[in-house]
Amino acid sequence: MSKSGEMRFPMYLGGEWVSGDGESREVRNPATGEKIGTIPLGGAAEVDRAVRTAGAVAPGLARMTAFERAELCGRLADAVAARREELARTLSAEHGKPLHSEALGEVDACVGAFRESGEQIKWMTSRVIPMRDPTKRAFALRRPRGVYGVITPWNFPLGVACIYYLGPGLAAGNALVWVPPPSTSAVASELMACVEAAELPRGAINLVIGEGAVVGDALVTHPGTNAVGFTGSTGTGHKVATRAAGKPLLLELGGNGPSIVLEDADVEAAASAVAGGSFANAGQICTSTERIIAHEAVADELAERLVGLASGVRLGDPLDAATTMGPVHTADGARKIVEQVEEARSMGAAVLAGGGTLAGMPTGQFVQPTVVDRVAPESRLNKDETFGPVAPIVRFSELSQLPSLVASSPYGLSGAIFSRDTERAFALAEEMPCGIVNINEASSYWEPQTPAGGASGSLSGVGRSGGTWSIEEMSEVRTVVLNAVERPGLG
Ligand code: NAD
């Protein structure tokens, strides 16, 4: 807090709070339009300082035992748990997600991420490789990558950072430099108060705040950044991949996987799962249920049930305990969602619920839970990532139509299949070009110890995040060969 009483959310570099050289940006609440405070806008100098300080502490982190690093993760989990309410309130105010039904849970997931990363690293083993030469012993040792650059999106401002990167990265022994999006940097700054309270080695986790094209780019191109983890849109991810060419990359990008409802599905259960997948976090999840490919035999009932479930969503003030959906995070996002629905309507779709923003709200970002039926496969609502609370139904009548409908969007992050014939669903799941396929569960269902990531050939990214998969991606294998010529001859 500044002398004028205004909230300031500084960067955190090498264990010090840094406000940059004066350039700053306002943080506004998407639900009220009110100013929450200001964030500094850093530049290449702050990135350089962060990378250097991380480079200085990295060898010490790498030398720690797995048990010592697990202890750091545990302390960080405790520090986050101790600030649960405070973090969730800032998260809700800055992002727009409901405090009670979503923001508190996201903070809890971060506590879990640090705790579980600490547990997982204690049980991950290295390998001994059989050799042709009888005097040789070869070991494949897991080593941290060193300075790990992390860039994250705004949809889960704390969750993506902690679950995908900060927990596993620290457990693996890396020093981290984190660039969050400017629009959710206030809560990122508050997370650094937990890093400080946990008394991590100075520089183990650093936060640089600024415009992504400035500080994100400076981070990935810095010669001291050894590896990059990026989660965000496909367009930015491809820029990052080009700029970071040659460095190890973990890219978690956009999603728009199909949710297929077959003619033998339990439609009531499918509708409930689909509604959860479409409306949670106001549809702003990379694995949201963004296109529902439903058989004609069940599509009417599915649509009717979805309309009923949409009417049960409480869109409103994120701080109200009864609210289950808040505004979407950005005004541009709200515009894009409504445009996509309008385009689908102009191409023959029927908008059965919602379709616009709720009138009389303090901002124009309260997009209504929306159900759209008979969506044309060529419309953007089906092909592109909508990132809003929209359940679009594309109908089919013959199984032979499925391959082209599945392929009608280039993303392949997460999908779902609903059918009472689990054998058939499993066979389909094996062929579905997505990193995750959930059977009789929403496409957005994910537990963080399971691997998540884009399918090869899709626009959804490279590598796998989650639990030990993140730890593996954020470490590398070093082969050490021991020449054991001397034989003591005990037997
Ligand atoms: P975005 O691509 O606009 O921004 C992501 C991050 O990149 C931000 O921190 C931004 O500041 C930074 N950035 C912007 N330009 C940059 C540049 N030139 N160089 C380096 N960094 C730069 O994405 P967003 O709108 O914040 O997030 C939404 C997207 O994230 C959606 O597409 C969603 O599907 C995706 N996402 C994917 C996953 C996953 O697991 N695959 C998880 C969450 C979100």
- Per the CATH scheme, the topology name of the largest domain is Aldehyde Dehydrogenase, Chain A, domain 1
Q: What do the pLDDT scores average to? A: 97
Alpha-beta classification: alpha/beta
Report helical residue fraction.
Answer: 25-40%
CATH class of the largest domain: Alpha Beta
* SS field, number of helical segments: 15
Shape annotation = globular
Please give the oligomerization state of what you see.
Answer: single chain
Biggest β-sheet strands, sense, barrel: 7 strands, mixed
How many structural domains?
Answer: 2
Rounded Rg: 24 Å
What is the percentage of strand-forming residues?
15-25%
N- to C-terminal distance: 72 Å
Distinct ligands? nicotinamide-adenine-dinucleotide
CATH architecture of the largest domain: 3-Layer(aba) Sandwich
Strand order of the largest sheet: 14-15-16-13-12-17-18
Q: Assign the CATH superfamily of the largest domain.
A: Aldehyde Dehydrogenase, Chain A, domain 1
